[in-house]
Design brief:
single chain; three-stranded mixed sheet; 44% helix; 8 helices
Length: 228
Amino acid sequence: MRDGLTELFQQTHRELRPRSAVPELRVEFFSFANVNNTIRLREGKLLVRVSDLLEGAPEYVLRAIAHILLAKMYRKPIDREHASRYRRYVSSQHMSRKAHLVRQIRGRKRIGPSRGRIYDLDAIFEKLNNLFFYGLLARPQMSWSSERARNRLGHYDPAHNAIVISQVFDHPRVPEYAVEYIVYHEMLHLKHPVRLKGSRRCVHSSEFQAEEREFPQLEIAKKFLTLL
């Protein structure tokens, strides 16, 4: 299969760059913690790693991967059909289950304490759960991030059933309503998992957005976060 995959990349290279010689290619399936695929150019050689979760994928999916990676490498437009085929396959129920299991087994996630210097995330979760969800949401692991990231406010990780909030918000100058809004947003991700609409992932459904608007300090919280 590996030789067949290398041949697919060679064919795709000729299609994208018909006037250029195909460089030496090293293509391998690799044990990523997710459905990741990478391509690098080193010393004139193309080094490609395809997630081993895709080892049994149909040829059209592997061909789509070859097209997407090589198009990105050479800054060529990505064909919509290839992009759509790949998205549909990796978002299928079968692949989603496999990826979820692999993230649990291979993924390394540092879960820190829920109690920070200023705010206790467990207490905030319980308060919001009772106010907005009738106390029906099962509490995941609540954690402050290990780094003071500003580019990611928080996230819900379904593979590890954890809500992680950036440590930058565990600060006396951050109002409680801002922290509560971030936690509430991630709780909505817990309630409304990502769905597939056609070939596209729907992260913030209409139901998600409608419930988000129910947060009383929504506008003032968003304004504070943009100024932070």
